[in-house]
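Subject: mismatched residue count in predicted assembly?

I count 509 residues in my input, but I want to confirm that the predicted structure covers every chain. Input:
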Amino acid sequence: MFCARRLLLLRAAARPALPVPPPRARGYAEAAAGPTPMAFTFASPTQVFYNGANVKQVDVPTLTGSFGILASHVPTLQVLKPGVVTVYAEDGTATKYFVSSGSVTVHADSTVQVLAEEAVTMDMLDLAVSYPAPRGPAASWRGFAPCPSCVGWASQELPGAAESPDQGLCPHPELLHRPLIGIKGSGLLLSELSAGCGERKPCSR
Amino acid sequence: MDLPLTVLLCWRTSEPLLISPAFVFRGQVRNMATLKDITRRLKSIKNIQKITKSMKMVSAAKYARAERELKPARVYGTGALALYEKAEIKAPEDKKKHLLIGVSSDRGLCGAIHTSIAKTLKNEITNLTNAGKEVMVVGVGDKIRGLLQRTHGNYFLLTFKEVGRRPPSFGDASIIALELLNSGYEFDEGSVIYNRFRSVISYKTDEKPIFSFETVAGSESLSIYDDIDADVLRNYQEFTLANILYYSLKESTTSEQSARMTAMDNASKNASEMIDKLTLTFNRTRQAVITKELIEIISGAAAL
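Triage response: the counts match. Full output below for your records.
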């Protein structure tokens, strides 16, 4: 679902020229000055997942594309897009979290803060009430009715999708609906998530 | 029972005038309250003690919950403020427009919570206006408005009500941030003044900086951060503002509930002291009334 993952090394070309590089930043040609471990903080307003933890890599979906953050990443500020944050621990195990929005900050001393407005582990997503994003023109918010066929995140093609390419996935375009993601136990429905990359397949997670 | 004896002794040694009950009482230094007055006072203070005790219980429950929710909020808030600390963003000295956000609540009976915020706000307003800056104040909580309205009413940009009834959520902080950004006041830098929670018995009025989009974008220490375009930075700034407000709301609520718990506890203790003193006075008065009636009876019988 995400756009192509950009690796660090490929981004060198687009940087604007700075008059004098500040002493803390390192140029791309220099090797990192020793392995500074990454102090990773990942929190939502109600829950802390990692606080200054030492992890190997974090993949974040941002508005400018999703990328992976390792120790000694170049400092940056980014804004999160709805999607999945994957944290690779020191022993290689990957944990996935769904985030609705938020910010990512990477500092020069290898501290990384990912602050998400809503963040849940994947098992907290309630598939019974989650709808995929509609691709057709979203009309008014009123007249919202659940579509009987567009239920659940599924990795298979929804029936009828091929027959109505303009309406996207849902074969019931007359029912105006918007994407919803349900979170178990909280009665929370995250709606108004922007359609991501415009692909027509529902994402397989 | 020494009391009636004392009264009888005084009566015997006093002048042999016609001693009527009214005369005895008129000669006293102060008007002795009647039994009915003391009973009424006692009943009302007992009611007040019940109320303050129950308010203390309610505050204790709310404080427990607020403290629990403060733990992740603190990590979240320090994460949001980390950029300003690490990048050492400072507004240039010639920038004129300043914003002060005082975070408190609507409800009183919590000690010095509101007055400490109002005092800090007043000092800051004076300092900034003396330095030639333009200041506007945002009050979160009706008490701030009430305390500052008369003297600094023209500095108010926005006031938020219905704060403190329910525990603050991120949604509340977003509403405040949104109204602030839509208010049209283009501040250059500002600070959030709130009560930082230290322990059950202590809190401290603290100040955290906030910066506008232009100040952050123009700061030279931001150049080490790679690949930032204006849209991303603006989104980031707005989100950080909401985060800082959320953090200050959480700290404020916890401080307020703990202060209310302490205040109500002290009030209950004072009320029980008053009840003890009044009960003693009540008993003394009751005995005095009995003695007076005995004297009347005896003097009446002696006159026969």
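The interface with chain A takes residues 69, 71-73, 75-76, 79-80, 82-83, 86-87, 169-170, 221, 223-229, 231-233, 235-236, 239-240, 243, 246 of chain B (CB under 8 Å). Marking this ticket as 'not a bug'.
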